[in-house]
Specification:
- The chain is of the alpha/beta class.
- The chain contains 14 helices and 13 strands.
- The strands form three sheets. It has a six-stranded parallel sheet with strand order 10-9-8-11-12-13. It has a five-stranded parallel sheet with strand order 3-2-1-4-5, with helices on one face.
- Strand 12, helix 12 and strand 13 form a beta-alpha-beta unit.
- The longest helix has 28 residues.
- It is globular, with a radius of gyration of 20 Å.
- The protein starts with a strand and ends with a helix.
- The model has no long low-confidence stretch (mean pLDDT 92).
C-alpha cells in the first residue's frame, strides 16, 4: 500500500469542493493507496470560526435566527473530521507521491489560492512524485500565468498531468511539452449509487424546483423561474450556497453535504449557475438549466456531453420541459469515468516502478 497525499480544497462550506476531495480520496483508497490530505487551510478558508462569527453577526443585525448557521458549521466540522486524514505541509516527506487537484487550485485570480500558492503549486517539494488530477486554472489568463515566476517552473516537475477542461489542458501541454489527459471531476468517478449513503429524508414531499445559485439572478431570469414554478405547481426550494439567499424562493435549506445530495436527488428539476450544481444534475439524471455566465469550466463540461443547449439565460421554461437523452449522456460519462480511473491506475503503477 502506497502513502499518497492530496492537495486540494476541502476546508470549506462549498459542497462541491468537499465532495470532490472525498471522492478522489475514496477512489485512491479503492486502488490500494493510503491517503492523506495536506492542509490547505488559511485565513480565507470557507470553513472557520472567524467566518462563522461573521455570519452569525449578520443574522443578528437582520434580527434573524443564527441557529441554522451554527448547525451548518458543525455539520461541516464533523464531515471534515470524519473523512479527511490531514497532515501539515512540512510532513509531506513521509509520502511517496502527491496528487494536485481537483478544483481550481491554479486559479491566480483567487485570493484564497494565491495566499497558499506555495502549497497549491508544490513549491519546495523535492524527491516526491507529483501528479495532477483534474486540476484547473479556471478563467486565469495565460499571459498572467506566464508573468509569474513559479507556474511553468513547477509544472515541468510533474511526472504526469491531467486537467478537467481543455482550456487548462492547452496551457499545461504548451508550457511543458507533456501529454496532458482530460479526466472527469472526482465527483464523476462514482455513479449515483455511491451517493445513496448520504441521503436523508427531505422536508418537502411536494414537487419542487431546486435552485443552487451563488448569486441573485437578473429580474428577467427571476420572472422566468417564478412563472415556470407557478405553471407547473412547484415550490421553489433554494439551497443556500456560501451563505447567500436567493430572494424569491419559497423555502431555504442550508447546503450541508447531506442536504445538498438529498435535495438534488429528490428535485423535479434544477436551475444552477455552478459547476458542481451542473455535475450533480447530471449524476442524478435531472432536467436542468445552467445559467450562462461564461464560465469556462461549465461551458466545457456541458460540451463534453453534448449538452451546451442547457446553458441559457432565456427560454428557461422551454428548456426545462425538454427531456434530456440520458442514455447517451450516461454512456459518455461512463467512458470518461473509465478513462479517468485508468489514468489514476497508471500513476500508481508508475509510482510503484520508481
Amino acid at each position: 500500500m502506497k502513502n499518497v497525499g492530496i492537495i486540494t480544497v476541502y476546508h470549506t462550506e462549498n459542497c462541491g469542493s468537499v465532495l470532490q476531495a472525498k471522492c478522489l480520496s475514496d477512489m485512491l483508497s479503492e486502488l490500494n493507496c493510503n491517503v492523506s490530505f495536506i492542509s490547505t487551510k488559511n485565513s480565507l478558508s470557507g470553513h472557520s470560526k472567524k467566518r462563522l462569527f461573521k455570519n452569525c453577526i449578520k443574522k443578528i443585525i437582520k434580527r434573524e435566527s443564527f441557529i441554522s448557521t451554527i448547525k451548518k458549521y458543525n455539520s461541516y466540522s464533523r464531515f471534515i473530521r470524519n473523512n479527511f486524514n490531514i497532515i501539515n505541509y512540512n510532513k509531506i516527506e513521509k509520502l511517496q507521491s502527491v496528487y494536485f487537484g481537483s478544483d481550481t487550485i491554479w486559479d491566480i485570480n483567487s485570493e484564497y489560492f494565491l495566499k497558499s500558492q506555495d502549497i497549491f503549486w508544490g513549491l519546495n517539494i523535492n524527491n516526491i512524485d507529483m501528479f495532477s488530477y483534474a486540476a484547473s486554472i479556471a478563467n486565469s489568463s495565460y499571459s498572467d500565468l506566464d508573468g509569474l515566476e513559479y507556474p511553468i517552473k513547477q509544472l515541468k516537475k510533474f511526472k504526469k498531468m491531467s486537467a478537467r477542461d481543455r482550456y487548462t489542458q492547452n496551457y499545461l501541454s504548451t508550457r511543458t511539452n507533456q501529454k496532458v489527459d482530460i479526466v472527469c471531476d472526482p465527483t464523476l468517478l462514482f455513479d449515483s449509487q455511491y451517493y445513496v449513503k448520504y441521503l436523508k429524508k427531505t422536508k418537502n414531499s411536494k414537487k419542487y424546483l431546486l435552485l443552487y445559485l451563488f448569486n441573485e439572478p437578473s429580474s428577467a431570469v427571476k420572472k422566468q423561474i417564478m412563472d415556470y414554478a407557478k405553471t407547473h405547481e412547484m415550490r421553489i426550494v433554494c439551497l443556500i450556497g456560501i451563505g447567500k439567499l436567493i430572494s424569491f424562493a419559497d423555502e431555504y435549506v442550508e447546503s450541508t453535504v447531506e442536504n445538498f445530495i438529498s435535495y438534488f436527488y429528490n428535485a423535479n428539476c434544477i436551475i444552477t449557475n455552478t459547476f458542481h450544481g451542473t455535475i450533480f444534475s447530471l449524476i442524478f439524471n435531472k432536467n436542468f438549466v445552467t445559467l450562462d455566465y461564461n464560465k469556462i469550466k461549465i461551458n466545457e463540461l456541458l460540451k463534453q456531453f453534448d449538452l451546451t443547449e442547457r446553458l441559457t439565460l432565456n427560454n428557461i421554461s422551454k428548456k426545462l420541459d425538454e427531456k434530456i437523452n440520458y442514455e447517451g449522456v450516461n454512456k459518455k460519462i461512463n467512458n470518461l469515468r473509465e478513462k479517468s480511473i485508468n489514468y489514476l491506475k497508471e500513476t500508481i503503477n508508475n509510482e510503484k516502478k520508481c
